[in-house]
Every structure is written in structure tokens, then in C-alpha cells.
Amino acid sequence: MSEYSPSLDHLLQKQRGYVSKYPENKKAVIVISGGLDSITLSAYLIEEKGMELFPLHIQRGQTNSVAEDRAVDYFTKFFQEKYGKHRFHKPVKIATNIPPQEFKSDLFPYTKRAGHPMRDPLIHLLGVEYAVAASQKFKTDIKTVFCAIVPEDYFPHSTLGGLRANTINTCINMGDWGWQITSPNIDPFLTVDLIGKEEEIVWAMKHDIPIERTVSCNEANERTNFLPCGTCSSCKRRREAFQSAGFEDSTIYYA
Questions:
Q1: CB burial class (10 A; 0-12, 13-18, 19+) of residue 237?
Q2: At 159, which CATH number?
Q3: Is residue 234 part of a domain?
Q4: Can you give the pLDDT at residue 4?
Q5: pLDDT at residue 99, as a whole number
Q6: Which of 131, 136, 163, 253 has the CA that lies 20 to 30 A from 242?
Q7: Is residue 47 part of a domain?
Q8: Parent domain of 100
Q9: What pLDDT is recorded for position 113?
Q10: Taking 80 as the threshold, does the pLDDT of residue 90 lie above it?
């Protein structure tokens, strides 16, 4: 993770009297992919924090889009049966290419080194738009967008500093300092200890969340029968996390 920037925290504290906090009305948009991080965080927020979540799933042209979409459908049914439809609303699914197909191939050298430029900020800003729309539709007030960045994420756009910058960007451009975009996994104002993949697995297994049905694989597509490939960097990180957590990985891998 990049160096923590207390100056951004200071600005938020000065403007609104806090840096980040769980919303008093317990309502938030959460960006979900169907992966281990976002699914476990969703369950944690409902069970431990009493949140009411408005999920947003973005089909952004990724290789594993079908596998992720299936995982989102599976956990929507699971969460709504376990917690109720009023706690985990039906996800809104949108399709928008991030990055655009017109120049995605030109980004390849950069992407291999540092990830898709501005991917997370763009996704989170769509979360802001959905928060406004959901507030109108459900006659409520949603100004929190949660994502599931974990300490192991290392791209510049997947850091606490990036989230703070996007929060300030949103507050300024919305003309409202009540907005926040953050990840409870890495935000020191929302968690005492950082929550990484190992901690996620321990919590999920203790709370009977079938995380073997999550999709963290970059390559799950027709070639792998939409199963996690088992060999990409994301699959390797997942397998290592299960081993470190001391739990058997029941995920069905292609290889």
C-alpha cells in the first residue's frame, strides 16, 4: 500500500468534524464483484454492523465477467434468504467498459505494470451516482460507498490514500461534505486491525459463508468452464490465504 496521507484526513476532519464513520442510518452502496473480498465484506457489514446494503455490480468488460455475474446471483439469493431482502437489496447491474475497448489494447504495457489506470476511482464514482439514484428510488439518504480493498492490494488506485482523494473529489464535486468512499478493511477509523484475505477467510468460515462459491480468478471464462483457473496470480493468493488461515479450500478449480 502507498504511504498513508494524514493531510487528506486533516482536510476531511476540518470540513466535517470526522474523517470517516459508519453512517448513522446504516445505509450504504457496496460495489460487489462476486469475489472473496466484496462478498465477505457484505456479510460482515450486515452481521457485525447492522448495515442495509445497496449492491452495485459493474460488468466492465473483464475476462471473467460471466463467472463473476453467476457468483453475484448465487450470493444475492444466499444473502436475501439469510438476512432478508431489506438488508441486501437486489444488486443493480450495469455494463460499462473500464477501460474503454477503443484503447484498452494500447494500455496493455502500463496495465501489466500498474493495473488499469484509474479503474477503482471510476468504479467508485459510479457508486456515487447509484447512491443518488437509490436515495431517490427508496426515499432515503445514502452518501456512503463501500468497496472491499484489502491490505494486499498494491496498485496506486487501490489504497487508502486513493480512497481519501476520491472522497474529497466527490465532496467537492457534489457540493456536500457528507460523502465518503472507503473500505472498512483498511480504514483505521472503521476497523481496529487491518482485514486481509486471511482474516476474511477466518471470519467467513466461522459464520458459515460459502466463500468457495466466490470468484477471485482473473481467467475464469469459457476456457475453464467458468471455474477459477487455479494458476493465475489471484488464484495463487487465494490458495495461500486459505492455507495461512488454516482452513481447507473447498473451491473447485479448473486445474
A1: middle
A2: 3.40.50
A3: no
A4: 66
A5: 93
A6: 163
A7: yes
A8: 6-193
A9: 86
A10: yes
Q: Write the burial class of residue 85 (CB in 10 Å: 0-12 exposed, 13-18 middle, 19+ buried).
A: exposed
> Dihedral of the CA atoms 74, 78, 80, 84 (nearest 10)?
-170
Residue 146 grid cell:
463501500
Q: Give dist(CA 131, CA 7) in Å, integer.
A: 27
Q: How many CB atoms are closer than 10 A to CB 112?
A: 8
Contact 48, 42 (CB under 8 A): no
- The residue-averaged pLDDT of 167-172 equals 98
Picking from 153, 215, 209, 184, the residue whose alpha carbon sits closest to that of residue 28 is: 184
With contact defined as beta carbons under 8 Å apart, do 119 and 157 qualify?
Answer: yes
pLDDT value of position 3: 56
What phi and psi values does residue 55 have, to the nearest 5 degrees? -75, 145
In 3-state terms the chain splits into helix, strand, coil percentages (rounded to 5) of 45, 10, 45
Amino acid code (one letter) for 22: Y
222 burial class (0-12, 13-18, 19+ CB within 10 angstroms)?
A: exposed
Q: Whole-number mean pLDDT of the chain?
A: 95
In a domain, 82, yes or no: yes
Structurally, the chain folds into a number of domains equal to 1
* Beta strands, E only, 157-201: 180-182
230 is a domain residue: no
- Going across the sheet that includes 27-31, the strands are 92-95, 52-59, 27-31, 144-146, 180-182
- The 10s digit of each residue's pLDDT in 215-235 is 999 899 999 999 999 999 999
Judged against a pLDDT cut of 90, whether residue 251 lies above it is answered with: yes
pLDDT 10s digits, 199-215: 999 999 999 999 999 99
